Amino acid sequence: MGFDEGLITLNSDNGSYFSGQTVYGKLVFSQDKIKKFRGIYAKFKGYCKIHWTTQHSRTNSQGKSESYTVNHESYEEYINHKAFLIGGERGEVVLQPGKYEFPFEFQLPGNCPSSFEGTVGHIRYEIKVVVDRSFKIDQEKKVAVRIIAPLDLNQDPYCREPIQFELEDVYCCCCLSRGATETVVKLPVAGYCPGQLIPIEVACENSGRVTIDDIKLMIKKKVTYHATTNPAKRETKDLIAEIKKGPIPGDTTRNWTVEMVVPSIDIYNLAACRYIDVDYIFKVVVSPSGCHSDSKDYKRLVIGNIPLVGYQDDVQNPLHDQMPQINAPIVNQPSHQGNESYPAPYPYPEVTPYPSGTSYPVTTQYPLTQKSQTPYPPDQLASNVPYPPPYSQISQNPPYPQISQNPPYPQIPAYTSGDAAQSLSANTPYPNSPYPTPLNMPSPNPPYPQNTPYQDIQTPYKGTGLKTGTFGFIVPTSVPSEVNPLSMPAVTPANPFATASAPPALDKEK
Questions:
Q1: Tell me: the pLDDT tens digits for 134-157?
Q2: Is the whole model's pTM more than 0.70, yes or no?
Q3: Disulfide check for 381: which of 26, 168, 291, 385 has CB 3.0–4.6 Å away?
Q4: Domain edges within the chain
Q5: Is CATH 1.25.40.10 what the domain over 153-303 is classified as, yes or no?
């Protein structure tokens, strides 16, 4: 008995959590003898690691060719928290024989990527409990934690866009024309969830003499790894689903509507990861017979775990058993009543729209109005939700007014007599209208004063109200005629010497 036989238990039965949730756990072990150590700590670590090697050749100093290995790597962390359960970095703790339980908790970042396992890279989350002992090898226990980052299709406008392929080919042999074909493939939207059906319209017009062997409709998964040490890129591709239609003989036209089921695959939201990309593509391949080349085209397809509102959002998630199954916190902490990040035990209600034994829904592709039948994470999330609600709450109140017996505005014609205002309905939305009373009815608060606050002022000119130019000057109705200074009567200036008297004459005889 001792630490090595102990257990790390979590409040999620399957060890899965949504990003942004709180991980509660505890260390339980029994000790049959006295144990001394510095402390016991729990460490939560989430990281991405990529590594692959390539072989190269070179010529050495002796002129001989030799091979060497190049390591391509990348690494980044998303969470690295450490908390002591007992003791610390220094000192000594003595445990007496008995059974011990040490609780712990860790808050997940709201933007951490999903757990992922690939061929040359992975994203992992783990909790490690360590007994830190002086001058001895530490004792460790680990437990893996699976993180699911919700991928809401409603957040990407591209997911609602339809997808259409148009492939045209002209065939010839020995410089002689063998005709042409035109193939059109349509998908209603670009975003889907596992378990949903993709209705695909296929139309092929073969106006030539070359038979089309088949038309392949495929969903492919592409994973791209990026290395920063010895920078390089590596891709892997996997076939997820495929449907074949054909053949189409010459001078014929074929039309199909096929349904492709999105398989039960893990959903990866790796937007916060810089070194791993997971993408899905829808590919169309038209294969003619003989030595003619195939025609192919592909477009991006988005696969998430929160469906588009109004499009097959009543389909049961086939991976609901892998969703977080959160129980009550197993540590001595205040209960979070009504404040869980996601409902327990998992965000999918125990209602399946499918009858047992069939994979096709018995209802239409449009959503049900009852929220209790929504199979994907509901919209009633708590205040500490790491992501905003995926879609607005579907209620009995539509976003636009309905035609009812109580219209929101009075039922009166646009122009009525003066007594028509008295026939206003008593069920108007406002008892006192916030706007001026129509039909010239007196109002206790007119919008503007009845009398101008200024006294009448005799203006020199009474304007016509016409504006000149772009400055708004008023042109008066009557302007005095222009005065010509030449036509005015001449005024003779006064002679300053007219009233002056001459001096008396001098007597010459004197």
A1: 888 888 999 999 999 999 999 999
A2: no
A3: 385
A4: 153-303
A5: no
